[in-house]
Amino acid sequence: MNMEKPKTKTNKAVPQEETIKTSAENQKSLQPSPKLSRSPMHGLWALTNRDLRKWYTNPVQLITSLIQPVVWLALFGKALNFSTVIEQALTKILPSGTSTSPAQIATALQATFGTSNYFSFLACGMLAFIVLFTSAFSGMSVVFDRRFGFLNKALSTPVARGAIVMAKVLQSVGRCLIQSAIVLCIAVVLGMDTGHFTVVGIAGSFVIIFLMATGLSALFTMLALRSSDWQTQVALINLINLPLLFASNAIFPKSIMPTWLQDVVAVNPVSYANDAVRQMLIGANGMTSLWMDFGVLIGFAVILSAIGVILSWRLLSK
């Protein structure tokens, strides 16, 4: 008989690197998990940057958003040659043989528009135009996020509901500031009066644009908190934007409007934004003081932003 030798167990040497790796993993598993941020601003920049990235990586969207105000400036602003209108009117009023001087025309324009250059008057109004229509799409962003499921995912994270609303507002404000700067540069190229431009005046004008954009973006975001139908949102945009634009001093001064419309202009926050920008950029006569303009717009931005955050706690749900 062949006697089999008993098998003996041999201990294989464990590589040193594997041992170190195993011990490191064990130590890592014993470490406490990182605490979740309880800050109400947690995730604000990530959500804001997400929306901004969709905008600045799509140059077609930027270009198309600038076409309408530029068309108004180039066609409407240049076509409404009020200098010629006033000259023809004075020719009919003054005795025959009496010629009108540029000083008389400038005085008439100054008395009507607060400046002797209507194109400059309209260019400041176009800054409000671009803010109005850019802010409107902050609400559309909420509607599409809900339709495509991103909003449900955001609501499932520790991000505060107020941060979701403020992210929509901030991305809209950033777009408004950039597009307003581009429109202002185009207006200067087309002939806007730059004689009253100062660093303080330009900076103050963009503070005004920031406040108006904040208030309007918060308004349109609030209207979209429970909406999932983009057609409803578009109808609301047209219902609100056009009255806000035409019932303000964006295109024509308050003084030439009917009495009942002047009362509407006086309570329209867009009018105060236009008034402040014109005073600081072209030295126009204001319908009120700059302090009043800033006060109205600060209140407008703060109140609507606060209402938007409060409503998000109750209306923003999966």
* Helical amount: over 70%
Low-confidence parts, pLDDT < 50 over ≥5 residues? none
Counted by DSSP, the helix tally is 13
How many β-strands, per DSSP?
0
Strand-pairing-aware structural class: mainly alpha
Distance between the termini: 80 Å
Strand content: under 5%
Q: How would you describe what is shown here?
A:
By secondary structure, the protein is mainly alpha-helical. It has two domains: 44-72 and 118-315; 80-113, no CATH class. Helices cover 72% and strands 0% of the residues. It contains 13 helices and no strands. It has helices at 16-30, 44-56, 59-79, 82-93, 102-113, 118-147, 150-155, 161-190, 199-223, 230-246, 259-266, 269-281, 290-315. The longest helix has 30 residues, at 118-147. The relative contact order is 0.12. The mean pLDDT is 81.
Structural topology:
Blueprint: H1 16-30, H2 44-56, H3 59-79, H4 82-93, H5 102-113, H6 118-147, H7 150-155, H8 161-190, H9 199-223, H10 230-246, H11 259-266, H12 269-281, H13 290-315
Relevant terms:
318 residues, mainly alpha, 13 helices
